[in-house]
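Support reply, case 0932

Customer input (verbatim):
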Amino acid sequence: MYKLYRLRNNLKLLSIPYKATRATCVLVLVKVGSKYEKKELNGISHFLEHMLFKGTKKRPTQKEVAEVLDKIGGSYNGFTSEEYTGYYAKVSKEHLETAIDWVSDIFLNSIIPEKEVEKERKVILEELNMYKDNPMAEVQRLWKKLLYGDQPAGWDIIGTKKTLQKIRRENLINFMKKNYLAQNTLICVAGNFQEEKAKKLITKYFLNIQTGKAPKKAQVVEKQKSPKVLLQQRDTQQTHLCIGVRAFSLFDKRRYPLSLLAHILGGMMSSRLFVEIREKRGLGYYLATNYEADPDTGYLATSLGVDNQRVKEAIKIVIEEYKKIREGGITSEELKKAKDYQKGKLALSLESSDAQAFFYGVQYILQNKIYSLEEIYKKIDKVRESDILKVAREIFVPQKLNLVAVGPHKNKKLFQTILNSL
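Our regenerated output:
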């Protein structure tokens, strides 16, 4: 069972003992991501994440930083989202201190060398090109752009070519000083370790973390009165689609019925849409319906890739399945299967120390609260067929419906007409 401690300077430690492993993961989460950025410096959270691996006062070069964990077979990385940024080191249990030393060093003592900033700018621009060259990734980027437009929730986490060119070393240092604060940071230690030892080491190595007022982000504005369509013309072999609706945030109780609804629609290989689109008609290879929720936003969307000549047919099937659930609900068998599927997937996803750290740590960062696996199971089990029907009737309405298509299509009006049939 996890334990939450408040250490010096309001720094928080989340201890997650997990003896069924020989590994220990040290994860540092700071509550800042692309939703906290200014437009002219969009992408700075992600840029800074890259730069923390480029050298510290104790280990001045990228090679010296990397060798610490390479020498003991550890795994390590960083990641950036809209809401938070994270850095972790996963090692065998006897190297706990090395992991804490390493993570604290890059988090507190990175020097962000000027020459490395210029080199990494080129690397990130190539990362951006990689995503843009992938239609499956591009349709997801455009989906959020369509939903939220020109506000932080609609901007790319990685930034744009224009904003990336503007970010300088001074911007990165100022952003780090403003956001990488004790009040804004959570340290998670998960796996096989001695709790008291971990507390002492965290206190020692994070002694000099700066304090200050945690930053705030802009409030998300949601405006939609009719179905929206966004097309990106590309000479692709298939059309990549994202079809879905605005929904509920992380704090909404309706998120549990909605997550089960997503599984029933397209979350499993026996789900309604998977069977209708892939198995019955052979329309496409990949298909998935997901519910995504943040503290201030939420949506349900079906993503799929289909033959360019059968796009209209595929969209109509998705819309029709949305309508069927809205009008006829689901069966008790479907609900039981979705509950068992969600609980089983959740259990299997937590078999490693890093997964445990992420599961509990992200909950706290986003919600300031943690639910155990058993508590989540109880919330899932409480969902009734009528709850899902009610949710479907709330979200599957034309004024909340959106579609993004990446492929060789120009007729936006045609897509608009199909959406209006919901």
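We compared this against your earlier run and they match. Two observations from our side: Residues 228-419 form a domain with the Cytochrome Bc1 Complex; Chain A, domain 1 fold (CATH 3.30.830.10). The CA atoms of residues 74 and 330 lie 47 Å apart. Please reopen the case if you see a mismatch on your end.
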